[in-house]
Amino acid sequence: MKKLFLIFLLSAFLSIPIFANGSLQKEALSIKGYVEDILIMPDNILLSAKLDSGADTSSLNAQHIRISKRSGQDWVEFDVLDKNTVHHLSYIVLKKVSIKNRSGEITNTAQAASRPLIAMDVCLGGRIEKIKVNLVDRSQFKYPFLLGREALAQYDVLIDPKSRYKNSVMPSPTNCHKSLLTY
Questions:
Q1: Which residue, 83, 85, 59, 61, is CA-closest to 146?
Q2: Phi, psi of 131 (to 5 degrees)
Q3: How many Å is the maximal CA-CA distance in the chain?
Q4: What is the pLDDT of residue 170?
């Protein structure tokens, strides 16, 4: 009987996924294409996003960026284009960030030196996470949203570099849900 109990206990322990650092696995990793649709919540702005593990932070194509003070806090107002609609948004600025280029040097343009960093709810694959996003004019890029490594880790995502739009369901307010996990 004791042997049977030990075998049961051992098999139960081995069935629990564990990360290399010893922490319990939060959720199964999902595979996404290098381009996916995301939904900015609660404004329901649907955008194509490039999933980029080479970038630390996420970036959003923002136009007419204006920073002002409200009750002693920095706020940023900006416009986002979703297909043919301009959305006027306003968020608290967490901080201003400098972005490094591919060689690791800080970009010396005035725009890059003063990028506002905000926290916004974004839905990817039916899951809403609050992620940090810097605002910059990305109009010269093909995709208006770049989902960086920090956000990809929050979503537990692996990127399939040969695929685009692996999400089986288009994100919408009815199929996007906050993660039940706390990190």
A1: 59
A2: -120, 155
A3: 72
A4: 77
